[in-house]
Amino acid sequence: MKIHEYQAKGVLAQHGVPVPRGRVAYTEQEAVSIAKEIGFPVVVKAQIHAGGRGKGGGVKLAKDAAECQAIAKAMLGMTLKTHQTGPEGRIVRRLLVEEGMDLEGAREMYLAILVDRAAGAPVFMASSQGGMDIEEVAARDPKAILREHVDPRVGFQAYQARRLAFGLGLPADVLGKAVTLMQALYRAFEASDCSLVEVNPFLMTKDGKLLALDAKVNFDDNALFRHPQHAELRDLDEESPLEVEASKHELNYIKLEGGSVGCMVNGAGLAMATMDIIKLAGGSPANFLDVGGGANADQIRNAFRILIGDPEVKAVLINIFGGILRCDVLAEGVIAAVRDLHVNVPVVVRMKGNNEDRGKEMLRDSGFDFTTADDMTEAAKRVVAAAGGAK
Predict the structure, then answer these.
(1) Where do runs of H (alpha helix) occur along the chain?
(2) Which active-site residues does the annotation give?
(3) What Cα–Cα distance (Å) separates residue 272 from each residue in 37, 66, 287, 319?
(4) Mean pLDDT on 107-135
(5) CA atoms of 81 and 50, how far apart (whole Å)
(6) Three-class SS of residue 14?
(7) Is the pLDDT assigned to residue 142 strictly greater than 70?
(8) Would you state the pLDDT for residue 309?
């Protein structure tokens, strides 16, 4: 689950991470009022779930009330396009107004914590090259990224923070403050069950003040039940409508760009294999949709409705292994969906496992023109052909 920058800074501040003074504004009048309270100059930042806002015109400095109002008026409602939004961009509905910082003589660095799944542990990363895309830094100079893996049993230790601070080349008189800030950052990561905490830039002013000038926080969806307060931070306007709808029915759905084959499977591993085999057959998957092992007929129907809600989908592949989810239950849900939703795209079904014969019989007797396949390769070839052939 992603949240906005101003929300991320609120989470970090709760755990002692220093951040600039600022508040969120939904109107130009609110923006001016907040700016007057903070004192000029202020920075006005568009709040969307994407990076690169500054390059797209979503971060501007206002030196007085008139300039702040003009900037806020221009930003609110604009479609902001960055390298992370795609060509469609995102509509700006809220702004962060915060104190302007004197960057003359300041150092911009980078800090982040994320889960290293290969190591099975969080990793704390740092770089002296902040304020830019860290992917570019890593590609150009991998040694510029410092890493400290964290043993979850003991947490992030002070000696690890000192090692990162020394690696960043921080002066001796701010080392203590840097260690305190890094440990606070890890407390926020751990206590909030985050999958990512990123501070870019991590700023050291010319007088030695340290703070998180920008912040990004993602929560682990699987741990949200432990943090009911996080639900109010979710901004549905920033999420795909189909993904929002899927979450209401406990379905795991991710839309993929440029695909024409809708995929419905049960199990993440099978989903990945299904997408791979569609690519091998010359097609392109339009989504990742995992209905899970225990889906019922109603969830299958809703999953199908979400699939065909994507106008890019030209054909649907249903690839199910009948274990907990029986093949006859799948067939029941698919038949109901095709009947009730007036589906007009080709549907290819490959099912194996529990009650397989009964499920296939139900599809044959349904009166609908389903295409069936006995193996994944055959199913992929048929659905790619139905979607218009190889791309």
Answers:
(1) 5-14, 28-38, 65-75, 134-140, 158-167, 175-191, 241-248, 268-280, 297-308, 327-341, 356-364, 376-386
(2) 110, 198
(3) 52, 53, 11, 11
(4) 91
(5) 9
(6) helix
(7) yes
(8) 87
